[in-house]
Recover the amino acids of this structure.
């Protein structure tokens, strides 16, 4: 789908829960695919309809899949800071652009830091123990978020998970 959208000049990046699913080897499973526009937002309706999706409110659904697709407005942000560099994955249907593991962990930590969401912490730990993440960048970002104390819980959980060989 990303490649088809890109062919039509629609640049998007996969974010939030679906990226956690990818980086956590489905320890957390999401059926909501959030694609955020990274360029000039163009009309996705004709492309999505041509791909067999039907609009249901703000979501798109395909009869052959259980996933819901949504196009939240950009820019791509993590804790109020704009993200401009993304990871890519080559799939059988093309190239998928997605948040990199570090930014994925930060995105989930933002939910923990700002909304006391324990699932956000758990998801960030899952991502960080299974992937190479820049822990120093995450620590600097956490300080800018005013969340150093909560960040220490994340660091402790990641260190423990890595010692146990989780991932």
């Amino acid at each position: 789908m990303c490649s088809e959208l890109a062919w039509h000049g629609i640049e998007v990046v996969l974010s939030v829960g679906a990226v956690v699913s990818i980086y956590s080897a489905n320890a957390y499973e999401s059926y909501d695919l959030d694609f955020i526009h990274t360029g000039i937002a163009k009309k996705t309706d004709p492309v999505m309809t041509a791909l067999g999706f039907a609009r249901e409110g703000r979501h798109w659904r395909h009869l052959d899949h259980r996933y819901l697709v949504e196009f939240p407005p950009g820019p791509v942000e993590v804790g109020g800071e704009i993200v401009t560099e993304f990871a890519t994955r080559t799939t059988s249907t093309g190239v998928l652009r997605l948040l990199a593991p570090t930014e994925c962990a930060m995105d989930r930590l933002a939910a923990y830091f700002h909304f006391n969401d324990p699932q956000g912490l758990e998801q960030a730990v899952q991502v960080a123990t299974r992937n190479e993440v820049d822990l120093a960048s995450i620590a600097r970002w956490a300080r800018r978020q005013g969340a150093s104390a909560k960040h220490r819980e994340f660091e402790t959980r990641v260190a423990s998970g890595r010692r146990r060989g989780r991932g």
Notes: Residues 148-163 form the longest helix (16 residues). The chain has two domains: 2-100, 102-163. The chain has a mean pLDDT of 93. The chain has seven helices and nine strands.
